């Protein structure tokens, strides 16, 4: 990898993205234009130290996941994203891989829903990006790495989330996720990362293996969910899932009925989360 060229490209693109365009507060006077390294770190879900080492050419061979995360955070166009992959010595993901690129339209949706919890997942339910209200509601996902960012993996191997479930609703969700994942593997049979995910789930979860082998049917759909927030308490929200035609992305949106106590609680959660991110 031409480490210096890669780092220069990241810094050049970082300096052209305004914090407002990335959905962040301007934060007072800045020595340089664009995003700070700390802000790029937050948006991409990688450490500030690693961003620094990449920009300075001291870190080599970033993973495809890191390059993809940087491309999303920097709002690169498709040609720029491909160029960043080439600078990293990697081939850009082809049509045989699960798409992970945020289209301009999806990015604009995120930009406009600044007070609504929104997260974008790929076809296999790997989290690509979550806005600050989503992180405030569901917990900060920036610390998750690798398969931890996949909702199927987390539901079977680390089901400690804030959504309240009965035994029946949990099983229904898991069944739907397995059915969805089976359909995705049929659409992208050459995706090696997807195959590794399925292999790990089959090896570590007897329930997943059983559901996978029996060919269960089902689909993940909109639902009324109760979120147990550690600071505000229980809040009942509508969870809607929008699928983006042509890019195979899932947009998850949480909303509350206007004028209700749940709407007030959601507004408080968002405000508390924003304060913690700024302060």
Shape verdict:
globular
Strand content: 5-15%
Number of helices: 12
Spatial gap, N to C terminus: 37 Å
Do you know the CATH architecture of the largest domain? Answer: 2-Layer Sandwich
Strand order of the largest sheet: 2-1-5-4-3
What is the CATH first-level class name of the largest domain? Alpha Beta
- Mean pLDDT figure: 89
Number of domains: 2
Which regions contain 5 or more consecutive residues with pLDDT less than 50?
none
Secondary structure category:
alpha+beta
Question: How would you sum up the major sheet?
Answer: 5 strands, antiparallel
Give the helices and strands as they follow along the chain: HHHHHHEEHHHHHEEEH
Helix fraction? 40-55%
Predict the CATH topology of the largest domain. Answer: Beta-Lactamase
Quantity of strands, as a count: 5
Gyration radius, in Å: 19 Å
Note the main attributes of this structure.
single chain; 279 residues; alpha+beta; 434 Repressor (Amino-terminal Domain); Beta-Lactamase; 2 domains; 5-stranded antiparallel β-sheet; 12 helices; 48% helix; 12% strand; globular; Cro/C1-type_HTH; Helix-turn-helix transcriptional regulator; MLTR_LBD; Lambda_DNA-bd_dom_sf
Task: Give a brief description.
The chain is of the alpha+beta class and 279 residues long. The protein has 2 domains: 85 residues, 434 Repressor (Amino-terminal Domain), CATH 1.10.260.40; 175 residues, Beta-Lactamase.
Describe the structure.
The mean pLDDT is 89. The longest helix has 21 residues, at 167-187. The protein starts with a helix and ends with a helix. Strand 4 (233-244) and strand 5 (249-255) form a beta hairpin. The chain is built from twelve helices and five strands. The protein has helices spanning 3-16, 37-44, 48-55, 64-73, 78-87, 104-112, 132-138, 151-157, 167-187, 192-204, 206-213, 261-278; strands at residues 118-121, 127-130, 223-229, 233-244, 249-255. The protein has 279 residues and is of the alpha+beta class. It is globular, with a radius of gyration of 19 Å. It has two domains: 3-87, lambda repressor-like DNA-binding domains (434 Repressor (Amino-terminal Domain), Orthogonal Bundle); 104-278, Beta-Lactamase (2-Layer Sandwich). The protein has a five-stranded antiparallel beta sheet with strand order 2-1-5-4-3. 48% of the residues lie in helices and 12% in strands. This is Helix-turn-helix transcriptional regulator. Residues 1-34 are annotated as: Disordered. Residues 34-81 form the HTH cro/C1-type domain.
């Amino acid at each position: 990898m031409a480490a210096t060229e890669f780092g220069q490209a990241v810094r050049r693109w970082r300096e052209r993205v305004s914090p407002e365009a990335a959905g962040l507060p301007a934060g007072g006077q800045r020595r340089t234009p664009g995003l700070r390294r700390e802000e790029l770190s937050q948006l991409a879900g990688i450490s500030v130290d690693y961003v620094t080492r990449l920009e300075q050419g001291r870190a080599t061979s970033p993973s495809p996941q890191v390059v993809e995360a940087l491309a999303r955070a920097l709002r690169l166009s498709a040609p720029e994203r491909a160029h960043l992959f080439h600078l990293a010595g990697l081939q850009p993901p082809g049509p045989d891989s699960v798409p992970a690129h945020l289209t301009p339209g999806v990015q604009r949706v995120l930009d406009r829903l600044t007070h609504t919890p929104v997260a974008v997942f790929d076809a296999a339910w790997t989290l690509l990006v979550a806005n600050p209200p989503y992180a405030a509601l569901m917990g900060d996902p920036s610390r998750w790495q690798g398969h931890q960012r996949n909702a199927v993996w987390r539901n079977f191997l680390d089901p400690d989330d804030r959504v309240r479930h009965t035994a029946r609703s949990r099983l229904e969700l898991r069944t739907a996720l397995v059915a969805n994942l089976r359909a995705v593997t049929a659409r992208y049979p050459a995706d090696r990362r997807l195959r590794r995910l399925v292999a790990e789930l089959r090896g570590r979860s007897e329930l997943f293996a059983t559901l996978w082998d029996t060919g269960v049917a089902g689909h993940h759909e909109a639902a009324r969910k109760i979120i147990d927030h550690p600071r505000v308490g229980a809040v009942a929200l509508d969870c809607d899932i929008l699928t983006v035609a042509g890019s195979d992305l899932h947009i998850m949106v949480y909303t509350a009925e206007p004028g209700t106590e749940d709407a007030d609680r959601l507004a408080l959660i968002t405000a508390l989360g924003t304060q913690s991110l700024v302060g």
